[in-house]
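Re: beginner question about structure tokens

> Can someone show what the tokenized structure looks like for a real chain? I only ever see the sequence side.

Sure, here's an example I had lying around. Input first:
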Amino acid sequence: MRWSGVVIFGAVVLVAGCGRNADSPGSGGGQIQGEAASSAPAVLRTDVRQMAEAVPGSGNAPVEVHFDLAAAPTAGRPFTLQLAVVAKAPAPVVRLDAVTDGGITVLQPTLPVTLEKVEQGVPGLTTLTIRGDAAGVALLRVSVTLESPTGNESKSFMVPVIIGERRD
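And the corresponding structure tokens:
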């Protein structure tokens, strides 16, 4: 069982750097509110097939999280992490929060991020600006809550990030 976890982790890390296509413009299904709107770039990847899937954790909300790095992270320097939330059912409001393991710091936006009117199967997109504190593997724990009139459902995910050494 231990080896299967290592293999899955390795596959997620490898897939995160694959499938780059800078010519994939588009807009997400969810509209970013608050400070997240001002920090999101004009063009975000919308094809989740080109993004790595975050490792699912606890919870039963019908949702997936995919991620992509704009460039290889380097210790001490900010980098961009794109997140796509794909709800398997429409949700009036989706809240995305993130907690780090201490190896990385989320600089922007102020969390949690709110996505409104997320349609089933349409990615709700947001971008995080993160700084790697030191070289090595860091984990970003993402929590997604689907809010609806009938009740809230949550699910957690892990996003592994390999931080490279700084070379000046």
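Each token stands for a local structural state, so reading them left to right follows the chain. Confidence is low (pLDDT under 50) at residues 1-43.
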